[in-house]
Amino acid sequence: MKKVKIGMAGLYFSNFQAKEYQIYKRSLSAMYNIAERMEFELISMDGMISTREKAGESAEYFKSEGIDFLLLQASSLILGDIILPFAEAVERIGFWVVPEPVLQGELPLNSLTGFNLGVSVLRKNYPDRLVKWFYGSPDGDDPDFQDRLCITVSALRCLKNLKGSRIGLIHDVVPTFINLTFDSEGLKNKLGVEVVTLPLDKIFQRTSNQETDRETIAIGEEMVKAAAGINVPKIEVTKSSVISSSLLDIADKNHLDAIALRCWPEFQDVMHLAPCASVSYLNDHGLITSCEGDLPGAVSMLVSWFISREAPTMNDPVAIDPEQNLIQMWHCGPGPVSWADEEGQTLDWHHTLNRRIHEGEKKAGLSSDISFKKGPVTLLHVAGDGSSVFVMEAIVVKGPSKPYPGSGGWIGKLTCNGEPCTTADFLQCITMYGLEHHYPIMRGHHEDAVREFASWTGIQVLEIPKAERYVK
């Protein structure tokens, strides 16, 4: 994963006391510590800047370094004309306001006015330019300052890694799921994502030759070790490890960052299995994989991966408890082991594939059976043309029952942009926007980072409407 590059410069006016209080020096020291912790690369100027000439030299340096974001600190009052060289050289800019060290006697810094002046000059000359503000001690120890910066780093990490990424669509979307549409050109223009279409028969050819491959054996052993229980013969785990190995090989040879896998009906017709447990393994091991040939779902899961740096999963909403304001999110068995609660993962026969077979008939397919561990999550879905994103936060909670067999969990405490939502609001949202029935989910509350990513990329965030009793 590529690191975000953040440039930093301190701006000041010599009539004030930024040097005496060592504002920029202290800030730079703090930022290097923060950069190590948040895992971004900090590129800085050694001294503060007070002239347009020095600003121009610094701006060209930042441009040559290919920074993703420039954090300008109003170390004191600044002169308005030193802003423009930075705005000409760097697209994404943030402004750091420093609190006054004392609140009596002579005004020490006048940082707030410097920020106000600088942002005003920037916006009047570049009216469509986004600017993010930061406020905090030069020692960088304010939680709000660090939270805002962490959101920016997460959003920019997603933006940077998504651009130039390649997603392999294995054959096509599954039959009848004609709502999972996408526009390759739109995704490339908006998000920088390239779609590569690959045939299914390559997987089947590789699969038939890899059962004794060393990597395949290692994957199978790892799957067995990770599972808390196994209710199928060992050969079924081997079949899943073969598929995992084949897809990893295809991804490597085609330089893929993610896969949208058509997991039925060909896998069942040709190989008599379901690749759900393979999808589970791949998502836990960095090859983001969506089910049912869902290309927009794969994009959404890739966004989730870049923002959270944890394995995402994809689910359908399958049940609602309006009284407790809960939704059960579920899919037939692709849940990553890392999502499992204290009961862990059970590798079992695929419940959906085998639900209508008669007694004595041969079973087929492997499912990753898990109940999601409790904790905060974020749901999102990027539109198939990259024009918009749906996002909401929730918490995995104990529901009125265990999830259905497969991979799933109950979510509650639903919110959108900090506002509580009801299950009725969610139904209204689906109806209003025609949302696809697949909802990628990532661990943690990351809605702010998704929204900032959307702002930097110019895509619309779909707000959840309030439900009414009448049609609208």
What's the structural blueprint in terms of helices and strands?
Elements (H helix, E strand, L loop, with lengths): L4 E7 L11 H16 L2 E4 L7 H14 L3 E6 L9 H6 L3 E5 L13 H15 L5 E5 L7 H20 L3 E5 L13 H8 L2 E5 L1 H8 L6 H13 L2 E2 L3 H20 L4 E4 L4 H6 L4 H9 L3 E3 L4 H14 L4 E9 L4 E6 L14 E4 L1 H4 L11 E6 L3 E8 L5 E10 L9 E10 L2 E2 L2 H11 L5 E5 L3 H11 L2 E3 L10
Parallel strand pairs: 1-2, 1-3, 3-4, 4-5, 6-7, 6-9, 8-13, 9-10, 14-17, 16-20
Antiparallel strand pairs: 11-12, 11-19, 12-17, 13-14, 15-16, 15-19, 16-17, 17-18
Helix pairs in contact: 5-12, 5-15, 8-9, 9-11
Describe the overall structure.
The structure is a single chain. This protein is of the alpha/beta class and 472 residues long. Helices cover 37% and strands 23% of the residues. It is built from 15 helices and 20 strands. It has helices at 23-38, 52-65, 84-89, 111-125, 143-162, 184-191, 200-207, 214-226, 234-253, 266-271, 276-284, 295-308, 351-354, 423-433, 447-457; strands spanning 5-11, 41-44, 69-74, 93-97, 131-135, 166-170, 194-198, 229-230, 258-261, 288-290, 313-321, 326-331, 346-349, 366-371, 375-382, 388-397, 407-416, 419-420, 439-443, 460-462. The strands form 3 sheets. Strands 11-12-17-16-15-19 form a 6-stranded antiparallel β-barrel. A 5-stranded parallel β-sheet has the order 2-1-3-4-5, sandwiched between helices. Strand 1, helix 1 (23-38) and strand 2 (41-44) form a beta-alpha-beta unit. Helix 5 packs across helix 15 (447-457) and helix 8 (214-226) packs across helix 9. The radius of gyration is 25 Å and the shape is elongated. The model has no long low-confidence stretch (mean pLDDT 96).
